[in-house]
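Second attempt. The first submission of Elongation factor Ts had a stray character pasted in from the spreadsheet, which I only caught after the job came back as garbage. Lesson logged: always re-copy from the clean sequence file. Corrected sequence (279 aa) follows.
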Amino acid sequence: MANYTTADIKALREQTGAGLLDVKKALDEAEGNKEKALEIIRLKGIKSLSKREGRAASAGLVLVHIADQDNGQVGIMVEVNSETDFVAKNEKFIEFADKVLAAAVESGAQSAEELLAAPAAEGTVKDMVDGVASVIGEKIVVSRIARVEAPAVTSYLHHSNPDLPPQVGVLVGTDEKAASVAHDIALHIAAYQPEYLDRDSVPADVIEKERTTLEELTRSEGKPEAALPKIVEGRMNGFFKENTLMDQAFAKDPKTTVGKIVEETGGQVVAFVRFHVGA
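This time the job returned cleanly.
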C-alpha cells in the first residue's frame, strides 16, 4: 500500500483543487510520492480538457481594480469561473484569478477574447487558464471583463455566501461631485440590478418592443381605444422605474429615486457595470 497520510491528501487537494478520489488515486499510482502525484493529476487534467468543454462553469468569483489616470480613474472588473464552489474558494484558484486581473490591468484588454490573448507568465492568459484547468480538473473560464472610466470610480464587492469569494461586483463611474454618494449607489445596484443608466440609455429597439407588448396587452384587456396611449405611457413609466438606475426607488430611502440623490450633489453618474457570477 502506498505510503501517504491524510495530511498529504489534504495538502495535495489544497495545492491542486482536485477532488478527494482523484488525489487518492494519484497518490496510490505514485506510491506516495507527492511530486509524482501532482504530475499525474496535471497530465490527467490535460487529457480531459476537451471532455470538459460542454460542462457548465457557473461558480467562481469577481475581482476589481481601480487605478488613477490622467483624466480621472479607470475601474477594471473581471469574472473568472469554475464548475464548483469548492474550486472557487481554493487558494490556488484565487491566486490564478488575481493573475488574470493583473493581466487585464496591464494589457488594457477590452473583451474576454482580448484578455485571453494577453501576455501572462511565460505565455498568454489562455495558456494560464489551460494550465490551471489541467491541474484542478475542472473547466475554468475567463468569462467577462469590463472597464469604467470617469473622473471618479467606486467599486463594491458582495459576498452572497461568507464562505465564498465575492459573487457580485459593481463599478460606478461618477464626476467628483457625485462621488460622495457613489458607494451607496453601488450597494443599490448590487441589490436592485438595474439594466440601464437612464431612459436615454435604453436602446430604441428595446423601448419599441416593450411599447408594442404593452399596447397589445392593454388592448387585450378590453381597455377603450381612446385611453390606450395614456395607459401605455403609464406602464412604460413603470418599465423605466424598474429597469433604469436613475428612475429606481433608492434602496436607502424608497421615497426618493437614485436620480434625485445624484441631483442633490450637483453631479452625475457617468456609467456603471454589474457582474453576478454565473448570471
